[in-house]
Amino acid sequence: xxxxxISGGGVAGSTLAFWLRRHGFTxxxxxxxxxxRDGGYKIDIRGAALEVVDRMGLSDEVRxxxxxxxxxxxxxxxxxxxxxxxxxxxxxxxxDDVEIMRGDLARILxxxxxxxxxxxxxxxxxxxxxTPEGVRVTFETAPxxxxxxxxxxxxxxxxxxxxxxxxxxxFVHDLGHYISIFTVPNHLGLDxxxxxxxxxxxxxxxxxxxxxxxxxxxxxxxxxxxxxxxxDVAGQKKLLAEAFAGTGWxxxxxxxxxxxxxxxxxxSISQVRMDHWSSGRxxxxxxxxxxxxxxxxxxxxxxxxxxxxxxxxxxxxxGDHRAAFAAYERxxxxxxxxxxxxxxxxxxxxxxTSPGRIRFQMLMLRLMPHLPGRNSMIKRVTEPIRRAxxxxxxxxxxx
Length: 399
Hints:
Residues 2-338 form the FAD-binding domain. This is FAD-dependent oxidoreductase. It is a single chain. The protein is an alpha/beta fold. The chain has a domain at 3-70 and 99-172 and 271-344: FAD/NAD(P)-binding domain (3-Layer(bba) Sandwich), CATH 3.50.50. 37% of the residues lie in helices and 26% in strands. A seven-stranded mixed β-sheet has the order 5-4-13-14-15-12-16, with helices on both faces. Strands 7-2-1-11-18-17 form a six-stranded mixed β-sheet, with helices on both faces. The protein is globular and about 65 Å long.
């Protein structure tokens, strides 16, 4: 059993392709985008995921592309500074944790696989049928092919999951919030600085990382589920503008720049919860199987670790995909659930519900450097993240 189709060329799919190739399998990656996806937001690599990156021999390259963020500043509607904190504390990072732009990590992983893995860009799966020979897959443009296994690493709105397991609504659980991010001119001249403006039920931010000529605009807001077409970018921009109508600080200027953004993104903050991640010769990976939502800060780490465990399980099972999938789920289930638990608690601090809560949070941030027991307070913030990020003991699957 050697030919494995991976749907999705992001972090999960590229990491899986890397390890499958080194275990002697023949992976093929199909990616809907016409080329490698650039852009995205800052992501963190922690705990067990750092060990995976190290075992890939990519630690130095990843660290070279770290964001090097220095400080987070909180401002009111008139742009007046109300509190500051270190960027690492703001992101819940400690020790060797790495923050990197998603696009940079995706490129590093792709470059590690592009010479020995087949990539089908600008295409996607339209159908799957199990046959005695394997899984017969049809594509939007490429001719049908048969693979021994199919892996859905195609994100929150996974096509593979819908084809193999059923409607998305059965597995994707809305956490009552939305996120949007896109590239904007760095008109504030930010240098490794993040600025946030909290308002009741919504939060807007802007940041620029090391060496970046531009900046990212970030919007978070609470909302009941919204009905919209994911292909209708203009409609999504209208929804975001309506959600932040009347918000102060730099929000009107950021929304104006949104119209020219080449990488606009908006989606619900949701989790994927499933009783099992495989069906026959099809298995899910990363956000498609156990997406913890951006609020957890752990989606990338789960993708890296999950890909390593799945590839290693397939190699250890020596062709028995049922045994491999069972081992993968057994080893990953607790890790995935522990990281998913972070999301709802984090959301409470990311989007505050009232002016009173905002004032209290700003007061606590201003007082923290002067309070007795400051280090203990910081540890209470970072400890749940550290514990979840290390909630798995990695087997040594390296060939």
